[in-house]
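Bench notes, afternoon.
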Amino acid sequence: MTKKKAKSLTEERKWYRYQFFGKAIVKNPKEKLLIETTIANISFSGIGLYSGKTIGKGKKVNITVSFVDRKGKIVEDSTTGTVDWQKKFRNMYLIGILFDQELHFDGQPKLIEHLLWLIDTFQWPQPYKEKRITVI
């Protein structure tokens, strides 16, 4: 009998994650909680954050992403999601949030435009791991 190798979370992801410089304000509307975080990485389906405060696994949140675009202007886009996981690391928390809806031009036009520019400029992998599908 052969053992099946367990798939890692990264193998199961449909979208590539990109290193991303920016801030995110995370709001939990039910608890009137507002937390400023630093972005670790982002994909079209979720975001990884560094936070000084816990948010709580399973919490529904509103996320406002702020970043400097290619023209040097600070811009923002917003989306919603659910905290998928969080892990305490020394005096901070590493947090993973799954977006309720994948990022798209209608909902997050500035963020999508910037991500696509980064992918093209730095020749990063296409966002979707399925090789037959490309966004650019």
